[in-house]
Amino acid sequence: MYIKKLFFPLIFPLSLFSQELDNILNDLNEYSDKTHLNINYKPTAMTVLYGNDLESLGINTLSEALDFIPGIQTYSGTGSNSYISIRGQTQPFNTIYEKIGFFINNISIGPNYYQNFPISLIDRIEISKGSTLGLNNPHSFIANVNIITKSSIENSNNISLQTGSFDKRFSSLSLNEKLGSYNMGLGFFYLKDNKKVDAPSANLTTEQFGTSFDRKKESLEGKEDIGFLLSFKNDNFEFSNTYIKSNIQNNYGFFNLLDFNDDGYSEYETISSELKYTKDISENNIFESKIGILENNYNFNSYFYKLEPNNIGLYNPHFGIDYTKREKYLSFLIKNKTFNNHEIDFGINVSRNSIVKNDFYTNVDEDYKIGSLIAGKYYPNSPNLTKFSGNDGNISNIDDKTNISYYINDTYSYTDNLTFSFLAKIDDFKDFDNSKSFKVGTVYSNDNTNIYKFILSKSSKIPSNTEDSMVGHLNLYGNEDLKNEDLKSAELIYIYSDNKDKLKLNLFYSIYENSIDIKEFETNKYTYMNESSNLDNYGLEAEYSKLFENRSKIFLNSSYNVFEYKNSSYNLDINTPIVSKFTTKLGYIYPITSKFTISPLLRYYGSKNLLNGEEINDVLLTDLNLIHKFSKHSKLSFGVKNLFDQTYYYYGYQTKDENMLREGKTWFTSFSYDF
After folding, report:
1. Each residue of 57-83: b (16+ CB within 10 Å) or e?
2. Facing residues of 419 across strands?
3. What's the pTM value of the predicted model, to 2 decimals?
4. Phi, psi of 648 (to 5 degrees)
5. Quick one: DSSP state of residue 167?
């Protein structure tokens, strides 16, 4: 079955717990206490990845790190560069995926997934799956990703350089220095490559009209990313600034048809600033206040199909967007340390959302009758673009909105071995029904080695601006009657942990209600809808790590996830579409000598069900990383990904066989210096 649709991407472990190989056993517990991690006792399904271990395994980017986690798969599509599937959950027709909250040093950057954020800047990544409620995370519906950078850690100074396949050029710098009473943190990175992947299954933008295709059939995936991080912190104040910009070519093309040139791009830009004030207001109470601004900008440029050259005065359909959303927020939180064995947090967050830019550019539009009407269809009769803004721009609802969130969290220590927790949140968003979420959990352990958790939760999320009010310039229309999406979950977690071994098993079951998807309401016209059927999601996740006497380490992550996807408009009922149900990652860090380390990484992905009834076969990929330490502070790495040059695919919408070929063997080499 081949379903024609329009993609529109917008704005868009196990615990790896080593510091240095020679002091891991002595420092781990102290480190956890200092950073208040203690993830074994948190009533949530949390995983922490440490940058040192990721680098040892040859994992260089945020995308590769998240893919290492059981229950998470990262991949790209024909019309977009990056997706994340949490526990097998995918919605192939709705590429607006603002359901994961991303944070840098606990400060929200919204739903933007900067897949190439470098591991060389990262101290650790904290990932929570399932309901991840918090006062300042409106996008954390099914998962939460918090990046803790080296620049936020005292005396974590580093410079890294890297080159590799596709003319890759990369550099990063991380500094943390004392300036008077403040700790200053500074981070910087720059990445550029010219990635191209053969696209033998692609449909061309020229085939329908018989015009010439002027380049090799390749998916254009080159990128240029830059980022700056700056922070100042003392006992009471913390001021943080983040700037990230990512410019990425449009793979097969924005419309999933192979572009005839390399002018297409999608550009994401995030600017955030936050001032945080913390004060002990009494013996048992802490006051925390935050004031900040978050601005996300999205640009894209693309052509649809190729009409030129011709003798009838028609031009290539050309589209562009310049869209900026700004959020100003103020929050207050009271943390109660002890009260009759209770620890209570309660707070309020007030935000003001504004649409700063809302421009759409095109030289053909059916609704606004731009172009020449030929055989009932509009074609561009000019290369010049018409600018639409205001309510006629990218989205139609551009009014400022004030949103208020109320939050309370109570952790009750019934005994030394048994803890209960309750968390509730209400989001009062303008133009939408109140979003009500809660989580109840219990943690039990009588020996601090065997730990049991049980969690029940419900998360609720309002529709995105695009889903609610997108103008149909691209034949995709918003729906102001959409309901909130709800996710109800139950999780049972077992953890075994000592100084050398750690095992975590997580059994979960979720019901996804009112999922927002896409339907065709007229020929080649689409809108968003709430799916009438509930979508079931269940599975088992396993994480295991072990430290051996010779200081080598093994990591095993595995998951089996089932997502019962339904789309009543297209009469679809598919068991876990376009991603693998079963995945396993096995990594081994082996120090041959004090100076040489070899680290193989095996990545197994089970078969993937496609929308046409076929499937992509399973695949085992092998990566290998070699490290030579010149000294305690400097090292040289050489890595190969897909060592045996295996052929593997992602799901490819609008390709001839729904297959999107991926790159073969690639390499990288990097130099890192701590100072």
Report:
1. bbbbbbbbbbbbbbbbbbbbbbbbbbb
2. 413, 443
3. 0.91
4. -145, 160
5. T
pLDDT of residue 431: 82
What pLDDT is attached to residue 21? Answer: 32
Query: Considering Cα of 62, then 64, then 67, then 70, what sign does the dihedral take?
Result: negative
374 contact partners, CB below 8 Å, separation of at least 6: none
Which string of DSSP letters, residue by residue, matches 543-569? Answer: EEEEE-TTS-EEEEEEEEEEEEEEETT
Pick from 324-338, 477-491, 575-589, 602-616: least confident:
324-338
Domain count, the chain: 1
pLDDT-based confidence at 135, cuts 50/70/90?
low
Which residue type, as a one-letter code, is found at position 452? Y
Q: At CA 109, angle to CA 8 and CA 428, rounded to 5?
A: 85
pLDDT, position 38: 62
Q: Is residue 7 part of a domain?
A: no
Q: Give the CATH number of the domain where residue 459 resides.
A: 2.40.170.20
Given a cut of 50, is residue 29 above it in pLDDT? no
Of 139, 153, 186, 148, nearest in space to 463 by CA: 139
Residue 314: other Cβ atoms inside 10 A: 19
Burial of 89: CB neighbours in 10 Å, binned 0-12, 13-18, 19+: buried
Residue 13 lies in a domain: no
Look up the domain containing 583 and give its range.
20-674
Q: pLDDT digit string (tens) for 454-499?
A: 999 999 999 999 999 999 999 999 999 999 999 999 999 999 999 8
- CA dihedral (302, 304, 309, 315) positive or negative: negative
CB 80 within 8 A of CB 91: no
Residue 470 lies in a domain: yes
| Cβ-Cβ contacts under 8 Å for 437 (sequence gap 6 or more) | 131, 133, 424, 425, 426, 427, 457, 458, 459, 460
HEC string of 377-442 equals EEECCCCCCEEECHHHCCECCCCCEEEEEEEEEEEEECCCCEEEEEEEEEEECCCCCCEEEEEEEE
* Strand pairing class (485-497; 450-461): antiparallel
**Tokens read off for 264:** 């297409």
Full DSSP string of 314-334: ----EEEEEEEEEEEEEEEEE
- Round to whole Å and give the CA distance between 365 and 377: 10
87 HSE (CA, 13 A, CB side)? 29
Q: Tens digit of pLDDT for each residue in 557-599?
A: 999 999 999 999 999 999 999 999 999 999 999 999 999 999 9
Does residue 259 lie in a domain region? yes
- Name residue 413's amino acid: S
In 3D space, the residue among 101, 79, 77, 75 whose CA is nearest the CA of residue 88 turns out to be: 75
- Amino acid in the structure at residue 82: S
Mean confidence (pLDDT) of the chain: 90
